[in-house]
Write a structure and sequence with these properties.
single chain, mainly alpha, 4 strands, 4 helices
């Protein structure tokens, strides 16, 4: 029963709940970014560089064929266009996270540092110096 109690305490901590909410929101944000990249950013970019559809860009390593049993063997394709889309999506997500973290850091005021306490050795040396000056 001790393990169940410990698990309940772990699961009900604020950090775990916050993490779960972050994962759900992150997944939804990922879908938004995917749609933004695939449907809004990449088509005009492809048009600007000559009507290229990045999602269709690929290198065929081996053509599709039919084996001896009559079963179709799919082509072996290196789909680098989808990789380019994923890179653009990553940059957008990373930039959005950067902006959020920057805004959060701006909201958190740094506590003012207390002046450093002077060590006793330094105080003693100052007293000796002052007494020698007299």
């Amino acid at each position: 029963m001790g393990m169940m109690t410990e698990f309940k305490e772990f699961a009900m901590r604020g950090n775990v709940i916050d993490l779960a909410v972050g994962v759900v929101i992150g997944a939804a944000f990922g879908k938004i970014v995917t749609a933004l990249v695939d449907k809004v950013i990449m088509p005009p970019l492809g048009l600007l560089i000559g009507g290229v559809d990045f999602s269709k860009m690929a290198i065929v390593l081996k053509e599709a064929s039919v084996d001896a049993a009559g079963k179709e063997v799919p082509a072996v394709v290196l789909a680098y266009g989808e990789f380019i889309n994923a890179l653009v999506q990553f940059v957008i997500v990373a930039f959005a996270i950067f902006l959020v973290v920057k805004a959060i850091n701006r909201l958190h005021k740094k506590p003012e540092e207390a002046p450093a306490a002077t060590p006793e050795d330094v105080l003693l040396l100052r007293e000796i110096r002052d007494s020698l000056k007299k």
